[in-house]
Amino acid sequence: MSQVRPYGGTRIIDLTRELGLYAARLFADLGAEVIRIEPPQGGPDRPVPAATGGSEQATATGVQFAFLNLNKKSIVIDRKTPSGRAVFEDLVASAQIVICEPGPDEPDLVAELIAVPGHRVVTVVSYFGTDGPYSGFTGSDLVVQALGGIAYLSGEPGRTPLALPARQSLFVTSLYTAAATAIALWDSERSGGSHVLDISAQECIAHSLQNAVQVYDLENRILARGGEGIRDATESAFTCKDGYVFLAAPLALSASWSGLLKWMEEEGFDGLARLREPDWADRPTRAQAPMRAEFRALFERFIADKTKAELGAEALRRKIVMAPVSRIADLHTDPQLVFRRYFQKVAMPGLGREVSFPGAPYRLSEPVWRIDRGAPALGEHDEDILGRASSKIAHR
């Protein structure tokens, strides 16, 4: 008996460009039929083939495209033609969900989707929402992280703000998009009504600022880089033999601090006497810049001949809050990820080989998540979805 998947039988039209790409894939991973509708030249996220002027950057983009579009289907429709628009409307009418990210040349797209008869969820994703003073602005990952507030909270106290890496606004927005769309779909199926959702990437970022909003609401205080304000000298990343480890051994974590001192004692570390002096028992003093610099020098000298793996093992044994800072290359051999078979091999025809991609972002009791197919070639499913005759009409 085949496993029933949460979104089996659900058809989703994917008209995303950037911010909502991963949202559509999250549904596809759970059994939804997600159909990318692309223009004849392909969607804006589709990489340029090497034969037509691509480069190493195109190859890198190709891997990103493959990850964000796993499990999806692709059809080509020229929506600028009357026949293409007719086929497009028929497909929208057959879907329970449409996730769209209108481009600058599609000012009427949302109105067109709403006008199609039937009940469905139409989710509109953009950088700043469909109304308000910023709605017409061009956005980017960096701009949204800054205006959403996460860059202000990222980095070292007293230094410049930092953007989170790897286009985090794309993934944060997609997670909120998927959650809101799932809730709206549940209500639509229950009530037989329709929903139009307006997702702002800036609002998604602003809603994910740890406890910054609550702190302002309850204490009338604005959080800044460095968290709650007092940052212990031990709370940072430190250089070891083959990279970095992150340590947290403040006085509040007494087992971590005492375990660290005991370890230094067992190894006869000559800097231990300094760390046992009275000023290291005062929490505010430990947060001052001179103390942070002094502890860094002492601790990095203590771990200079130790690898990340050795330090991680000792930290577990001694109940010290410390862990390796992994590089991307380290993740493929991480014992925990290897044991859980986290990485999945997916064929990449354009590269002529398989590529390892991250597996499920969650672990459920039933095996309902899976990779059914790689990212689609342009128009790969025209005949399957449109039929031979309709496919020819849609391309005219």
From TrEMBL:
<dbReference type="InterPro" id="IPR044855">
    <property type="entry name" value="CoA-Trfase_III_dom3_sf"/>
</dbReference>
<keyword id="KW-0808">Transferase</keyword>
<dbReference type="GO" id="GO:0016740">
    <property type="term" value="F:transferase activity"/>
</dbReference>
<dbReference type="InterPro" id="IPR023606">
    <property type="entry name" value="CoA-Trfase_III_dom_1_sf"/>
</dbReference>
<dbReference type="InterPro" id="IPR003673">
    <property type="entry name" value="CoA-Trfase_fam_III"/>
</dbReference>
<dbReference type="Pfam" id="PF02515">
    <property type="entry name" value="CoA_transf_3"/>
</dbReference>
<protein>
    <submittedName>
        <fullName>CaiB/BaiF CoA transferase family protein</fullName>
    </submittedName>
</protein>
<dbReference type="InterPro" id="IPR050483">
    <property type="entry name" value="CoA-transferase_III_domain"/>
</dbReference>
